[in-house]
């Protein structure tokens, strides 16, 4: 049995972003219940040299919109990265989910061998679509998704593995 590039990307990004939305809603509710300024969570980071929660969400959505767009031969939409509240980052997730809903499996025909060109670490890189998806886009997406979850857990938001995995 084979898995298509579409199935390995769009539904995965969509489901994980829905789980992230649930996690963020729980965090916002937790901040209200504990009388914590939501900015504490939004600007929190795991280490001084790591990005804060808001930036983690921005980068996760960047990979979720960028990978399918590149693989389907579309222009990657540009977002302003100006989110400053839970409502703002939820809106960004919704905008990304709406974009993902515009893709079909046919958009990804031949994308496993399609040459993807992008800048990584300040260098221009070229690689086949399958390599890009499995070794660049998905690991980066999961890194930033997990780091967002970890920032909130570190701040005492009662989240569990089931929430991370998308249980509602």
From TrEMBL:
InterPro entries, alphabetically?
DinB/YfiT-like, DUF1993
In this record, what's one Pfam family?
DUF1993
Q: What is this protein called?
A: DUF1993 family protein
């Amino acid at each position: 049995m084979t898995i298509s590039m579409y199935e390995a990307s769009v539904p995965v990004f969509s489901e994980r972003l829905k789980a992230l939305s649930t996690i963020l809603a729980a965090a916002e509710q937790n901040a209200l219940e504990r009388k914590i300024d939501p900015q504490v969570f939004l600007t929190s980071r795991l280490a001084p040299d790591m990005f804060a929660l808001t930036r983690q969400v921005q980068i996760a959505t960047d990979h979720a919109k960028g990978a399918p767009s590149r693989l389907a031969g579309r222009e990657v939409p540009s977002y302003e990265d100006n989110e400053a509240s839970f409502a703002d980052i939820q809106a960004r997730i919704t905008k990304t989910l709406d974009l993902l809903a515009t893709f079909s499996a046919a958009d990804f025909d031949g994308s496993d061998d399609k040459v993807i060109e992008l800048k990584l670490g300040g260098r221009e890189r070229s690689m086949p679509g399958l390599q890009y998806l499995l070794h660049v886009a998905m690991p980066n997406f999961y890194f930033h998704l997990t780091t967002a979850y970890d920032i909130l857990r570190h701040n005492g938001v009662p989240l569990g593995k089931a929430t991370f995995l998308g249980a509602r």
